[in-house]
Amino acid sequence: MAERPILYSFRRCPYAMRARMAITISQTPVRLREVLLRAKPPEMLAHGETVPVLVDGDAVIAQSLDIMHWALAKHDPENWLISAKDPLIAQNDGAFKHHLDRYKYHSRYADTDAMAHRAEGLRHLENLNARLKDAPFLAGDQRGFVDVALFPFVRQFRIPDMAWFDALPLMPLRTWLAGMMGSALFEGVMVKYPVWKETGQEIEFPRRLMGI
User: Which domains does the chain have, with CATH numbers?
Assistant: First the structure.
């Protein structure tokens, strides 16, 4: 029997979150190696600069969206792939991520107006809110690829000022975010694991969850 693929992951990375969520929903077995971004292991760096990185034999997948596709191509029980080409994904990974970084991590960027970037990011959230007025999920009646691809980044946007975010007049968006955050799927992928390089411990992932 072939060995399970290796997934290099960092628990709090939004890119790694969405990869782990797709792997979990597909129930595709991997060996998870938890890493520290401040001390990236050379074994991972031989394949990719940052998490997530999936090593499947001679194949290396170093982009989170590609890892999602890889897992869902094996098993897609909720038909997530139907919404995999939604243009919101490119908007999230492009302009929104640009403004998110300069809002949440403004001290890393010289001459950055964090509030200006927050205002630009809010425009993206307003677009999401408009769609969510018509359905509970961005993908429609059920969560899909687009929901999982975007949700970790919207969650990050909330973190710098939760009181401000939670007072936004964007009830459909806030309801969607709360539901995604409270799901068994998300809670399951956010279990804290020991750092692989420190312990040598690989995690058999995913663990089967009820109600994911």
Answer: 6-79+189-205 (3.40.30.10), 80-186 (1.20.1050.10)
